[in-house]
């Protein structure tokens, strides 16, 4: 048996490590570099998702630009739904249509009061797992509520022919696409190496496990003291939530002590996806309305965001309140400045000046280089409009929610965005950074501007180094002789006097899918199998009938808050439910890979191992990995989530 394990380790993990390494070498080594992406959206990435009104009018189409063509298709889909509802056969209580399977084509429906959402997958550009497509539709619906509230339902009830696209605008459209892209494998030009994932969410694993990805590894005392800094600085009668995030990854969060007022994982996903993908956040303070669908879908809360460290780590603060007054904005602005100061970071004004100077210097040197190398006789290289084009682009990056200005008093301070300087190969000292804790200080303005990074920011820089991330993930992969895994950990939120509340903060951890799963189809297959294993662990079966029976049970179960959309999102509730105790399942396909699902109290694990490993051995390897991950919980996760009363 040991020989088999050794062989699989050499043939499976070494190949994966070598393949990922070759990808990583082609990337820049900076920890927070400005990425350049093609403005053309990827063609038919993932399943097509359509939102249509009860009158059959298209509201959103993920793939396809021919409005007349999709108007006809939407009318056909709504007509098909109406025919099923009005069926006059022996059994007239068929209910809403759920899905259609026609060859390789799978169509899944999600029906709400006045909207119908449809996912269409052909097996090549989308999943063939009905539950996975259903989950995407639920998140799509939640994203619409996030920006428009559930008042859109009453609008359509009063006027079925209303064109909702006039309310949505380009920002809502972009938010929907950003969210859906996270369910699908990245394009080949985005890369799948570990270094590239340092600031990008693991996407599908966060939705599969209903967990939030955290920044790792961090000393738990540093993380805990920073949480208490948020409590001391940001606590107020109108402050509901305070978060520190990097991109779409969580550093820490402070919530109310009442479990019913704490955030669902799906709402956290929406907040972090929206905030983490706002380019204007680097140099601007943003103040905008948000609706948290599982918290209260009937109205807006108001979020303040500011990037505390736009130069190196991208550390940002998010403060959420039910008060949209100018005074509340000033309170949050002052709190963010205090947090920035106590973390040893320079004031925002200093950072803006530095970035502006860097931008001017970069633009000047670029023009000088072009003058020495450009063939000026070629009209394609005319540089006369370079500056004006840049300025125009900067001016277009203003308030991110101007489309709903009538609903809130949000405003963005400042315009424009400058390329971020990168950390590069700068050497960082690890001396004593684990033991020092940030404390409030009373430095003068001059001292603050010259302040060195505090121990927490230094720890973040070290944690986010690509080499650091890669080494840690490889150690866990080697421990289980696996080529990939995703892990879920449920941690109680701490209340007053160190006692646990009934609320849980679900978190996830794992490497990105990389070699040997290099194409979108093979990666999609892995996630489909993980989803099947998840349903087996929870329901005992992954069949469509069993899944919908469970969803029927969840509908109406999570209705403690009258303003929640939980009844419309039972798949989210199913995946957020705590794992059963001590469940094991596995699947072996094509004599190439062994897929293992393992769960117990407060954890879930899904892993891919070479088929040379027998199921019993693979389960033992995975159990060993679980023990190691649970032992390292304090450095990998937010192991002590606090409330305002902690």
Write a structural description.
There is one protein chain. The chain has 646 residues and is of the alpha+beta class. 40% of the residues lie in helices and 17% in strands. It contains 19 helices and 17 strands. It has helices at 2-25, 67-85, 130-148, 151-158, 165-181, 204-208, 220-234, 265-276, 326-342, 348-373, 386-395, 445-449, 455-463, 466-479, 520-539, 544-554, 570-576, 615-631, 633-636, and strands at residues 48-53, 58-61, 99-102, 105-111, 115-121, 212-213, 239-246, 249-255, 285-290, 301-309, 315-321, 484-494, 500-509, 583-589, 593-600, 603-610, 642-643. The strands form 3 sheets. The chain has a 6-stranded mixed β-sheet, with helices on both faces. Helix 3 (130-148) packs across helix 5 (165-181), helix 7 runs antiparallel to helix 9 (326-342) and helix 16 packs across helix 17. It is globular.
Termini separation comes to 50 Å
* Oligomeric grouping of the chains: single chain
Number of helices, counting only DSSP H or I runs of 4 residues or more = 19
| Radius of gyration, CA atoms, in whole angstroms | 25 Å
- Number of DSSP E strands: 17
What percent of the residues sit in helical stretches (DSSP H or I)? 40-55%
Assign the structural class, choosing from mainly alpha, mainly beta, alpha/beta, alpha+beta, or little secondary structure: alpha+beta
Mean pLDDT: 76
Helix and strand layout, with pairings?
Layout: H1 2-25, E1 48-53, E2 58-61, H2 67-85, E3 99-102, E4 105-111, E5 115-121, H3 130-148, H4 151-158, H5 165-181, H6 204-208, E6 212-213, H7 220-234, E7 239-246, E8 249-255, H8 265-276, E9 285-290, E10 301-309, E11 315-321, H9 326-342, H10 348-373, H11 386-395, H12 445-449, H13 455-463, H14 466-479, E12 484-494, E13 500-509, H15 520-539, H16 544-554, H17 570-576, E14 583-589, E15 593-600, E16 603-610, H18 615-631, H19 633-636, E17 642-643
Parallel strand pairs: 6-13, 8-17
Antiparallel strand pairs: 1-2, 1-5, 3-4, 4-5, 7-8, 7-11, 9-10, 10-11, 12-13, 12-16, 14-15, 15-16
Helix pairs in contact: 3-5, 7-9, 16-17
